[in-house]
Write a structure and sequence with these properties.
The chain is mostly beta strands. The chain is built from two helices and eight strands; from the N terminus they run E-E-H-E-E-E-E-E-E-H. The protein is 12% helix and 36% strand.
Length: 125
Amino acid sequence: MIDLAFDKMGGLIPTIVQDHASGDVLMLAYMNAEAFQATLATGEATFFSRSRQELWIKGKTSGHVQRVKSVHIDCDQDAILVRVEQVGGAACHTGYRSCFYRRVEEQKLIIDDDPVFDPKEVYKK
């Protein structure tokens, strides 16, 4: 059993998701012990949704799943890096490839990318 420091942040560990081929940072999410074990067991990135208070398999609704290529733990065992193959081209629920599609320039947010999909179509909300 891998002993991670889930107790430091109330049972959650911040998890960086990175594209294994390009090195692009796709998103930041959180894992609890159950999500971590599910990720290792299934090979699909699984997180804990803080808003819904439940496990969340990335791409279960949209089809934009993340196939795990490797999992890395930092020196303090309180941060996780998951390198993935991003299926469908987009990691962000807003339709962008990365959740980090905006940059700060002169005190403003500038959109740095084009959306891959329309979230209204994918999520039917």
